[in-house]
Design brief:
Layout lengths: L1 E6 L4 H9 L7 E7 L6 H7 L4 E3 L9 H14 L4 E4 L8 H6 L4 E5 L11 H7 L4 E8 L9 E8 L6 H24 L6 E2 L2
Parallel strand pairs: 1-2, 1-4, 2-3, 4-5, 7-8
Antiparallel strand pairs: 5-6, 6-7
Helix pairs in contact: 1-6, 5-6
The protein binds 5-O-phosphono-beta-D-ribofuranosylamine.
5-O-phosphono-beta-D-ribofuranosylamine (GRF) binds next to helix 1 and helix 6.
Keywords: Purine biosynthesis, Transferase
Pfam families: Formyl_trans_N (PF00551)
Pathway: Purine metabolism; IMP biosynthesis via de novo pathway; N(2)-formyl-N(1)-(5-phospho-D-ribosyl)glycinamide from N(1)-(5-phospho-D-ribosyl)glycinamide (10-formyl THF route): step 1/1
């Protein structure tokens, strides 16, 4: 299976995914695609010998479908079978999502269905949650809402800030996403619940 990873920033999840796709893995990376040329993940991908492309969303303004038509070109040219969103910060329309239905994954920093959207760590702290975590899910037209493929949990600690909690969750993201991709690429869609 050929995996394209879409990023907008540092790409720490992308690095974890790239480094997990060893020779015995059912998938191999075919492309890293960013909507922002400044994304630090691009250099990390190039350093690992993975082709990279930038499709800047800004020239398209509010014309999401025109932007997405441009995204499709490098994804198709690379022979992509699976798309992994990893810190990709643009909302995708159901037109684009439906073309990758059942073949596009995303990682979200909360225990979905709790805290869809942004500022998840701050919201968990404000709610006084004792537990938090991250979720890998299939991407559907509704934001952060598709079938759950895996979750990992972390304790909320006394004195946690959004940053300290985010850092604890990120460690689990880097465990969860590679584990879910390995199963998913092997055709196993059963949810994976990490301890
Ligand atoms: C992470 O919190 C991830 O959950 C979210 O984007 C953040 C940064 O991810 N999707 P990365 O370091 O760019 O992979």
């Amino acid at each position: 299976k050929r995996v394209a990873i879409m990023i907008s920033g540092g790409g720490s999840n992308m690095v974890a995914l790239l480094d997990s796709m060893t020779a015995d893995h059912p998938a191999e990376p075919c492309l890293v695609l960013s909507n922002d040329a400044r994304a630090g993940g691009l250099a990390k991908a190039a350093a690992r010998g993975v082709p990279t492309t930038v499709v800047d969303h800004r020239p398209f303004g509010k014309n999401r479908s025109a932007f997405e038509d441009e995204l499709m070109k490098p994804l198709l040219a690379a022979g992509t079978d699976i798309v992994c969103l990893a810190g990709f910060m643009r909302v995708l329309t159901d037109g684009f999502v439906s073309r990758w239905q059942g073949r596009m994954l995303n990682i979200h920093p909360s225990l979905l269905p709790k805290y869809k959207g942004l500022h998840t760590h701050q919201r968990a702290l404000e709610a006084g949650d004792s537990e938090h975590g991250c979720t890998v899910h299939e991407v559907t037209a509704r934001l952060d809402d598709g079938p759950i493929l895996g979750q990992a949990r972390v304790p909320v600690m006394e004195g946690d800030t959004p940053d300290s909690l985010a850092a604890r969750v990120l460690v689990q993201e880097h465990r969860l996403y590679p584990a879910v991709l390995r199963r998913f690429a092997g055709g196993d869609r059963r949810p994976l619940m990490l301890d």
